[in-house]
Amino acid sequence: MVAAHDGRPEYLGAVGEELWWTAPRPAEAGRRALLRLRPGAEKPESVLPPPWNVRSRVLEYGGLPWAGIARDAGGPLVVFVDFADQRLYAVEPDAPGGPRPRPLTPDAGGPDRLRWCDPVIRAEAGEVWCVLEELGAGHPADPEDVRRLPVAVPLDGGAAGDRAAVRALDGPRHRFVTGPRPSPDGRRAVWLAWDHPRMPWDGTEVKIAEVAPGPEPVFTDVRTLAGGPDESVAQAEWAPDGSLLVASDRTGWWNVHRVDPGTGHAVNLCPRPEEFADALWRVGSRWFAPLDDGTIAVTHGRGSARLGVLDPATGHLADAPGPWTEWQPCLAVRGTRVTGIAAGPDRGHEIVRLDTATGHCQAVAAHYRDPVDPAYHAPPLRRVFEGPGGREVHALIHAPHHPEVTGPEGAAPPFVIWAHGGPTSRWSEALDLEVSFFTSRGIGVARVDYGGSTGYGRAYRDRLRERWGVVDVEDCAAVARALAAEGSADPAALAIRGGSAGGWTAAASLADPATSGLYACAAISYPVLDLAAWGPGTTHDFESRYPETLIGPRDAVGDRYRERSPVHRAHGITAPFLLLQGLDDPICPPAQAEALVAAVAGRDVPHTYLTFPGEGHGFRRADTVRTALEAELALYLATFPGTAARARDRGH
User: Fold this and answer.
1) In angstroms, rounded to a whole number, what is the distance separating the alpha carbons of residues 508 and 541?
2) What is the rounded CA–CA span in Å between residue 474 and residue 278?
3) Collapsing DSSP states into helix, strand and coil, what is residue 208?
4) Alpha-carbon distance 605 to 635, whole Å?
5) Which of 63, 315, 341, 622 is a Cys-bridge partner for 3, taking CB atoms 3.0 to 4.6 Å apart?
């Protein structure tokens, strides 16, 4: 059941009066379908049949993969990226004979040369503005040969057979860029840029340019308007009146500012110790959206992301009503209506609309239908624990829960500590069926936002600087020990689980002498395990210098890369573990997992290593998700004393 409902709607946008978005299809090899909801329709319709898969691979994590415009005749015009070849296509879904996608960009011989994302259709110029990611342009065998730049792609398909028809709007000044956004009068463009070794949550620059007039406009007078090495701007957006809005953490929190396009002078529109943005993992994320009346739809919160409407003239912020506490960064505005993808502790993601004129908020599409009786869910309890030195550690606690069965009287339940990926990320309050899968079987879940997580300001985020493998391990352990000390968890039945960067934390927690014996076992998925062999040339470009912040400059503290890596401390691992790996993972390649298996070989360390062909970084196929969950449950049943009997009592 969890496998069948894995994934959520993404990349919502308005095309005239219609709503469009991408939706997961776990049973169709994990593809993402492109859906549209016509005005007055009860259900959305799929625009493209299988195997079309609307998903970009820019930065490997992807970005906004489609854009559309309404037209007076002929229906919408939409452009999208197909995952299989990463080409940009145009489609007119209402054309006679049905949709026939036509390529706009050249065939580069596969998805590993040219990639596109974050498009904006400029119909008046007959082109699409977007990001081009070009790999191996000069040296195909060199993974470091990468460039990204804003480009214009002709809508007439002229570039499909002629790479030269793709026009650079600006040169490759920076290693990373977002898609350019034209001002309402078309005379200026704005976008974000940053360079190694910074990540976008460390420091970005707001680039602004004049748009030279003519049939093939290019950018002139390109300059940095705001941001810098120590200021993260997560979004820049033009308001309808031509003013420029940015989400900057210059105050220590991502707040919305109005920036003068001429001078760069910035005014904080709602100074609060809250986050109005988050880490820019995907190009094209949109945490705020200006409305025609001058107000701004925003997501905001501490450890959550509620929808509100900000009046920049007064600083007043009014929250949308309803149970939705987590809104995704893809707000679509039309008139007085704000639509987004939202979820809450008692519901999964659905498409929700707020009418700012009436204050009415309701789900309008992709309505969440709980596949199980809600009585089986364990709602999260938000708690703050004390970490080393008295520092705060935030966590969401899900106690075991079953509507018909309770655990043995006087016995504390097993608990699994969940370490999120990133590591610059956080846990969502949204209902997660994976959590219910375990809590309904008598196993508690503690989702820890360890130091370094987003959602709690820059200082909390910066705790992990040069301390990865230390602070995250300590904070997870602090939560585990506190739960055991207060009697909420059985100290003999604690485990830790994580994927990607969370897999690093889980493995490091088994290997660290300070946490030795704390956890009875661990579940580790598509992890980073050997930083000495993970970096430029061995992982994707986006994160290849991430350790420079998390561990320290490689040329200055090279020994630290080995000392912190679980593979090089595997002699300290004695607890059983499960290791899950996608064989097509470009971010954490199988070599990382295989190194740990080799490191414990010949020692009496029970472990299971499962690999999944066709899976990348994160599992998308229903059969993979099912196998992974069943293997993880089997680990706990075999390791935790009495858990198998409790699971049987619950009918599982």
Assistant:
1) 24
2) 24
3) strand
4) 13
5) 622
Question: Strand order of the sheet with strand 127-135?
Answer: 114-122, 127-135, 146-154, 167-168
Residue 335 to residue 292: CA distance in whole angstroms? 6
Q: 62-97: buried (b, 16+ CB within 10 Å) or exposed (e) per residue?
A: bbbbbbbeeeeeeebbbbbbbbebbbbbbbbbeeee
Q: What distance in Å separates the CA atoms of residue 480 and residue 472, rounded to the nearest whole number?
A: 12
pLDDT at 111: 87
Band (pLDDT 50/70/90 cuts) for residue 7 is confident
Residues 6+ apart with CB under 8 A from 125: 152, 215, 217
Task: Please list, in sequence order, all residues whose beta carbon lies within 8 angstroms of the beta carbon of residue 487, skipping any fewer than 6 positions away.
Answer: 412
Contacts of 213 (CB under 8 A, 6+ apart): none
| DSSP secondary structure of 47-64 | SS-TT--B---TTTT-B-
**Residue in 51, 61, 50, 86 with CA at minimum distance from that of residue 11:** 61
Mean pLDDT confidence for 97-108: 92
Q: Which of 454, 571, 456 is nearest to 512 (CA)?
A: 571
pLDDT over 60 (residue 231):
yes
Pairing status of strand 66-69 against strand 188-194: unpaired
Strand 392-398 to strand 444-449: parallel, antiparallel, or no bridges (unpaired)? Answer: antiparallel
Strand runs (DSSP E) across 452-512, as ranges?
494-499
Cα 467 from Cα 392, distance rounded (Å): 16
Is 256 within 8 Å of 151 (Cβ atoms)? no
**167 contact partners, CB below 8 Å, separation of at least 6:** 127, 151, 152, 216, 218
* pLDDT mean over 525-538: 95
Both tokens assigned to 391: 């520092």
Rounded Cα distance, 225 and 234, in Å: 14
The encoded tokens of residue 262 equal 């001429």
Q: Which amino acid is at 474?
A: E
SS3 string, 154-172, reads: ECCCCCCCCHHHCEECCCC
Nearest to 216 by CA among 112, 125, 113: 125
Residue among 26, 33, 31 at smallest CA distance from 5: 26
Distance CA 4, CA 26 (A): 6
- Distance between CA atoms of residues 165 and 469, nearest Å: 47
**Over the Cα atoms of the chain, what is R_g?**
24
Which is higher by pLDDT, 642 or 155?
Answer: 155
